[in-house]
């Protein structure tokens, strides 16, 4: 019956249906085992980029120059320091993924490393 249909001029020829509902090529089950498991780095795979950002003194100068929200304004106080928000924006542009940067910030061991780089560059910080 499908062979009796005329092709729609708007869409062209229809692909031949092989009895499957979707047209994606089937991946053999043997190839499933070849897929590498995700790494355990929790998004911290670009250590050089993170270190370069957090050891740059201009990051902390820029963060100091930004206006701070008045404490009398309603709302919760900021969870991260101002320099971390600036670094977050820079790293999103560098890594092309806000998910990776957010994941790297949320892992406790990574955050300790970030704080160590920040203290080495900008001096003592309040933790």
Short description:
With 127 residues, this protein is mainly alpha-helical.
Describe the SSE topology.
Layout lengths: L28 H4 L14 H8 L2 H9 L16 H14 L2 H9 L1 H15 L5
How would you describe what is shown here?
- This protein is mainly α.
- The chain has a domain at 47-122.
- The chain has 6 helices and no strands.
- It has helices at residues 29-32, 47-54, 57-65, 82-95, 98-106, 108-122.
- Helix 2 (47-54) packs antiparallel against helix 4 (82-95), helix 3 (57-65) crosses helix 4 and helix 4 packs across helix 5 (98-106).
- The longest helix has 15 residues, at 108-122.
- It starts with 28 loop residues before the first helix and ends in a 5-residue tail after the last helix.
- The relative contact order is 0.13.
- The mean pLDDT is 76.
Head-to-tail CA distance between termini? 72 Å
Q: Cα-atom Rg, whole angstroms? A: 25 Å
Principal-axes geometry comes out as elongated
The poorly predicted ranges are: none
Count every beta strand, where a strand is a DSSP E run of 2 or more residues: 0
Sheet with the most strands, sense and barrel status: none
Question: Could you estimate the helical fraction of the residues in percent?
Answer: 40-55%
Alpha-beta classification: mainly alpha
Beta percentage is under 5%
Mean pLDDT across every amino acid position: 76
Element-level helix/strand string: HHHHHH
Number of separate helices: 6
Features:
127 residues, mainly alpha, 46% helix, 0% strand
């Amino acid at each position: 019956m499908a062979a009796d249909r005329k092709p729609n001029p708007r869409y062209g020829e229809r692909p031949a249906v092989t009895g499957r509902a979707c047209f994606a090529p089937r991946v053999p089950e043997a190839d499933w085992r070849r897929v590498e498991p995700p790494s355990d780095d929790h998004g911290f795979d670009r250590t050089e980029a993170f270190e370069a950002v957090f050891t740059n003194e201009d990051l902390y100068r820029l963060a100091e120059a930004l206006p701070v929200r008045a404490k009398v304004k309603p709302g919760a106080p900021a969870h991260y320091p101002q320099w971390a928000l600036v670094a977050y924006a820079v790293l999103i542009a560098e890594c092309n993924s806000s998910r990776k940067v957010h994941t790297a910030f949320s892992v406790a061991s990574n955050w300790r490393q970030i704080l160590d780089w920040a203290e080495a560059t900008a001096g003592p910080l309040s933790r």
